[in-house]
């Protein structure tokens, strides 16, 4: 599948009816990806990264065919996987896979350490010597050299607001990083090849949430301040570690921070993937607006009252703090809302709103997931749509019989 950089403009009045017409022969639930919208998002991310290489974050896609199509575009290189078993699977065809999280999967570690090909293609993430110990306990001395990357905690400790970000690595600054880098360099069977620092508080926090302008301005302040602090701290860490190891990459960022991360001279690549599918989380950002490339359709199966319509299924709730913004967004037809007492349910989702009265049994409703790759855990495949027809069908990880996490 080629992702050409043809002009694309999102118009809900034609976009959703077009997807409906192209997929009219499919039974719900099903997922669809607009190829023109996906291509638009992929090229817009390249524009935003301003020449800095983008490593595809597989967690945000979980469709091997889409990952491979994006990697065929100049400017994208390598995959950031989320588990070691997934990385080993992808590494059969992708020659550069970094595992974004530490692994203690003994079977996967054994496979990695016993294969020259896999060991040359896969990089493990570490943030302490305990993770090195876990690898050594499985492999012993007779094994391939294991490539590792050191993770720096990119969260911001604000003097006024406290700890802002996610709780990941305990490596906070130059001394922590230098000590771990030296330990890796001194440990037989390992080679330090990279650094990663994911700034979740910059990349993953919306700065224009609907109806909360004051909060949005606070987020702007937080992200500006955190960016400045991290640029200085990450630069110092990278310089210190480069005195110990010959680094191949310094990874940072995410879809929401492409511009800011690309401006950091210490970063050589940015991990991003969510912007390819364009979930509704990104509707709350001010500096970019991806097209809703991926969506799913459910059918109306009952009418509890003439003014209501009930979908079969719908409870595809996103991870994170439980809140209304974790629910799938009802996008077409316009004028639908959940019933507060039931919301999006595992087996049924009753709907109200002006459009509900006109829906009949058998009609379809389009929804967008809050996040990106999580939608793939509910589907075996995506219909790839271009114009008024399905041009391909791509299996998800689930459709290929894989459930990594």
Please provide a written account of the structure:
With about 400 residues, the chain is α/β, with parallel strands linked by helices. The chain has two domains: about 40-275, TIM Barrel (Alpha-Beta Barrel), CATH 3.20.20; about 295-380, Beta Barrel (Lyase, Ornithine Decarboxylase, Chain A, domain 1), CATH 2.40.37.20. Helix content is about 30%, strand content about 25%. It has helices at about 10-20, 35-50, 65-70, 85-90, 105-115, 115-120, 130-140, 175-185, 200-205, 215-240, 260, 275, and strands spanning about 30-35, 55, 75-80, 95-100, 120-125, 145-150, 155-160, 160-165, 190-195, 250, 270, 295-300, 310, 330, 335-340, 350, 365-370, 380-385, 390-395. Helix 5 packs across helix 7 (about 130-140) and helix 8 (about 175-185) crosses helix 10. The two termini are about 25 Å apart.
